Amino acid sequence: MQQKHEAGVRSQESRVSRDVPASRLYTPSGERINCSSPVKSPHSPFPKPMTLYLGIDFGTSGARAVVIDDEARIAFQMRHPWTIVTDWVNCWQEALWSLLEGIPGELRREIGAIAINGTSSTILLTDAAGKPVDAPLLYNDQRGSIVLKDLKSIAPPNHTVLSATSSLAKLLWMQQLPTFSQARYLLHQADWLAFLLHGKLAISDYHNALKLGYDLEKLQYPEWLEKLQIAIRLPQVLTPGTPISELSPEIAAKFGFKRNCWVCAGTTDSIAAFLASGAKLPGEAVTSLGSTLVLKLLSRTRVEDSRYGVYSHRLGDLWLTGGASNTGGAVLKKFFTDEELASLSQQIDLSQMSKLDYYPLLTAGDRFPINDPHLPPRLEPRPDNPKEFLSGLLASMARIEVRGYELLQELGAEQLSYIYTAGGGAANSSWMAIRGQYLKVPVVSSMNTEAAYGTALLAMRGLSI
Fold first, then answer.
1. Best CA proximity match to 294, nearest among 282, 318, 316, 277
2. What is the rounded CA–CA span in Å between residue 46 and residue 146?
3. Within 10 A of 332 (CB to CB), how many other CB atoms are there?
4. How far apart are CA 85 and CA 95, in angstroms?
5. Confidence band for 37, pLDDT divided at 50, 70 and 90
6. Are strands 185-188 and 203-205 parallel, antiparallel or unpaired?
7. CA nearest 58: which of 193, 185, 239?
8. In the predicted model, what is the mean pLDDT of residues 290-296?
9. Exposed (0-12), middle (13-18) or buried (19+): which is 339, by Cβ within 10 Å?
């Protein structure tokens, strides 16, 4: 097992101001960085100023590509949605080729750096040549639950890996597969896709490696991980955004990229969405109003508590801590069509706060901010007026969001000061207003909600994140 962290390009963290265009980057000391040329450390391998940067997002519903210029303006974007998938490896590879081919040739020739994000804890095993030896395990696969008892005897209490869906739990489960003897490397989804472009195996980033057990403070694999005696090589871990290698000559020629186009270490889809949001300072947060309710708060203090599914990603000298509730848009769509949601939301009297007290869930159980796998949905009493029912649901979700941020702060995170909003719910002005009434801090829409855009920013900066 590889133990040492390989230090990549290290630099001060760049920050995007919410008061200026996203292209205007600043160091933590407030110094302006000129983005007409690539941001780089003294040892950056970038050979010369670049014009365009490509970010690719492999999310839960499909793949997306965004090309930006030196001013962080979108020059091109496209999507590749998933359909019915029986072979994820071929699906991912076909999507990657499709996205690269879909970028106009005149833009491809000007791309200087590429970064890719993937879903957290989606992993696969490959042979010595990088060929997958079995089907990957996706982000939400819970087969690792059968190894948690053994893992709890080794990993520190309440560690992030103590979850059935963690990368490490999945890896330990995969050791029983007949194909495991053929495996030489463990790769995350983003690692493998980047390998297809640059040809170098076993390289990851510390966002993807978090749930593998990688120590984000010491920047190395921990000693307790050695006790597991894992028989395959774990990836070398770099700072997200670190330039890894130029495109392989075959890929550059096939798709018409310039030979000195660099592939950078990637990130996860949720971190990429945070990077796109505009949040940059301790106390600023991003709430994702999608099918579920996801909170992420930027903090000087690292917070971890597996009981609530709370963990922290490293962002330079700061920590991005968060949790996710099962409430959210999926519950709303159980009771209302998109058209009804739009129409009824506009009719809500925002001067009157709803007195209905719900805990909106589709099925029993939540983990954050209440850790109770048997917590029953609370959706009564239901008024006859659908507008009042919707108002009650939105207000109740806002209270859950308030409690979520309170819990993060009780666990040691920064005091909440500002909230950016991503996801489909960000377009609902009534929901935004109701949340503002309860949260008591400014609530705004994210500057950009596409994870691919955040990944393109990562490629543009070529900095430690």
1. 277
2. 46
3. 24
4. 12
5. very low
6. unpaired
7. 193
8. 89
9. exposed
Query: Would you give the distance in Å from CA 81 to the centre of its chain?
Result: 18
Q: Residue 426 corresponds to which amino acid?
A: A
User: Which residues lie across from 114 on neighbouring strands?
Assistant: 54, 263
If we measure between CA atoms, which residue out of 144, 105, 424, 104 comes closest to residue 273? 424
Say how far apart CA 396 and CA 355 lie, in whole Å. Answer: 9
What is the pTM assigned to this prediction?
0.80
Structure tokens at 17: 């101001």
Phi and psi at residue 3, to the nearest 5°: -100, -35
DSSP 245: E
Residue type, 166: S
Residue with tokens 């009780």: 410
* Per-residue pLDDT tens digits for 59-96: 888 899 999 999 999 999 999 998 888 899 999 999 99
**Cβ atoms of 272 and 117 closer than 8 Å:** yes
Q: Which of 285, 292, 307, 218 is nearest to 446 (CA)?
A: 285
- Tell me if residue 162 falls in helix, strand or coil: coil
Backbone angles phi, psi at 202, to 5 degrees: 60, 45
pLDDT of 34 reads 34
Helices within 310-426 (DSSP H only): 329-335, 338-347, 386-410
* Helix (H) or strand (E) run with residue 319 in it: strand 318-325
Q: Which amino acid is it at 47?
A: P
Specify the 3-state DSSP secondary structure of 325. Answer: strand
**Residue 49: pLDDT band by 50, 70, 90 thresholds?**
low
Does residue 299 contact residue 153 with C-beta atoms inside 8 Å? no
Two tokens, residue 349 = 């009297």
Rounded CA separation 102/393 (Å) = 41
Cα→Cα distances 307→4, 212, 270, 368, 400, Å = 30, 18, 20, 9, 17
pLDDT at 454: 95
